[in-house]
Amino acid sequence: xxxxxxxxxxxxxxPLTLNLxxxxxxxxxxAVLFLPIIVFAFLLVIGGLLGDQGQHIYFTPGRVEMxxxxxxxxxxxxxxxIMWLVVTCALIPAVIHELGxxxxxxxxxGVRHIRIESTPLRFSLLAPHEDLTPKSxxxxxxxxxxxxxxxxxxxxxxxxxxIAFWWYMHLIMLLPLFGDGKELVKAITAIxxxxx
Length: 196
Known about the structure:
Distance between the termini: 22 Å
Strand order of the largest sheet: 1-4-5
Structural class: alpha+beta
Shape: elongated
């Protein structure tokens, strides 16, 4: 284990056990990342429901008129649409992606405890590196994007290609620019170096 991994592994949060409760906690931690957007959409819906259902004031040069408006209904529809899109196209695929990693860590690599590192722009599952062989590291890195890809294929088969597109976008995480891609490159390099 390198120095930076030891430092992260000895972090403030206690290890998360990869059992049913741990998996549910993982889902909760991913969902919290989307909370601000969902709250914004919820406020749009509430604003639309509580908003003025009748007259609206329109200012035009030289006069002020009152007309019937559809703003309140529009806010409700917009809020519900944002909530549906965020949950269907972002939240659920992100949860499936991270569960793919967690299940691979648990059942392929045999890891029992992980740590979660999350920032507003990044969410990572951390396992002690001495527990991972290069082959299991490769499988764990690919498991998250592949889980989301399988979910996208289900949406595609149901005829919802717009939703499937956002699920398929998780394959981008396999580029070396992102954490999954970096782990994939490290694992492939280690496998080639060992000749296995």
